[in-house]
Amino acid sequence: MRILVCVKRVPLTGGKMVLTEDQQALETRHLGFTISPHEECGVEEAVRLVERHGGEVTVLTLGPAEAEEQIRDCLAIGANRGILLQTDGEEWDPQATAAAIVEHAADHDLIVFGNESADAGNFQVGIRVAHALGRPVVTGLKGLSVEEDGRLRCEQEVTGGRDVYLVPLPAVVSVLEGINLPRYPSVPAKLRARQKPVERHTPARPEPRLERLRLVVPAGQGKQAEILGRGPDAAPAVVEVMRELGVA
Amino acid sequence: MVLVLVEHDGGQVDELSLQALALARDLGEPAALLVGGRQAAAQLGAHGVATAYLAEDERLAAYAPGAWARCVEDAIELIGPSAVVAAGTNRGNEVLAHVAARRDLPFAANVTAIGDDASGLGATRVRWGGSLLEEARLHGPLPLLSVAPHTVAAATVNGGAAPAIESFSPALAPADLVVQVAEHVDAVQAGVSLAEAKVVVSGGRGVGSADGFGMLEELAGLLDAAVGCSRVVTSAGWRPHTDQVGQTGTKVSPDLYIACGISGATQHIAGCKGAKKILAINSDAEAPILNSADYAVIGDLTEIVPAITAELRRARGS
Fold first, then answer.
1. ipTM
2. Residues B50 and B169 occupy one common structural domain
């Protein structure tokens, strides 16, 4: 099975959102970078499918040159090769992102996305790619396996249990964190990842149709907790608060 | 006219769809679209809906995102709306994304407010699970919007009579039904549900180990609370992912959220900021969680949590 996993480089935001002066981006000078937990589980799921059924996993990202770091992280989990669609660092809107991915997606049996990116959370790139390729798409998966008849068994967690979909390949899916517990790459796996092939393309960015004007930190960030006390002596004050809230 | 996809269950309109209707009324007069749900449609007059369009077909009995998108597309043809709105639920976002993909239209997910703008429709939407907002503009002939849950209050209108019901048969194609729920597997709910608990006792890295959660469970037992955790804890394998509170876990809204040994990364706060009050128990008085919490106790949680449990027992005289 040939599987393509699409991921997005995003900052590790820590405890506070700080914006650049022009309000166009997060201030990332002091931050590390990662991919969404959903996408990390997507890479792990793809690697597990290939370990079970054979095939190859390709990891694709649209992002700045530095996003090669995130591709290498995915190669260390066990993906075989990478595709970097290199941008100047400007974020692309979901329609443009999907169109760029479609150019490199057609020869894969399964295309895997995270349910939504950690930062923009547009909930649509995978569905747009599926429609452009004329393929079925199932989102928000907490379970994924291949049935004996070759169809994909896709499971969603819903109120009161699980909904199951059975779809033919080729297909597109998006997964949620919790579908698996991703492995920690070993040191040899990280070293091997450095040698794996990554091809680069530089697509042209179309005009955005969902145009980001500016970012705003919501009100409420930065309040200060009332200190009820220090150590176990604070227990009576805590129980008093619970009484006031009607939960004790 | 603004077309609003209204979700319902067991004859009742989903609360999040009522919130979507409230935001839609800022854009124009709402017309509702329901997939089945005649009984639910009758309740919509109080929310400003004059006409409810019912898509009816026996093939719609089990959810199929492509089929629901077809219903939305047919309703668009029927009434020619100026915008299409849904709740920012799994289904609302999924169905609008299908419509957007088919018609090559822009779609803004999880919008909290809309505004007029000469060069397109302005929308404020959430990023990072609500830790950041984005002001955006949609360029297209028909804007598609979903409404971020619990950011707009549902509102009734005076004298809303029961809406006129217009039922129609959507032009479903076989391809619309390739992805459809084939089976539902019931799960047995054990203990208090995290999403619905009135109190959540949650642990982070500071709890130290899987065994360390024993004292949190004891306190939770006394408070009829659910036990939650941060992402660090599930990544370490101390607790299952179903216990994780956060942007990529469960969003909770208890009366009291007790964060034990949780530093307060934005990933975590996105999942617990719906709590009425947050109590942080942390050894670090500078931890970011103190900027999101209402109350804090500073010190070693392995001493503080058992002391709270003991104090509760003492106060109850047992």
1. 0.96
2. yes
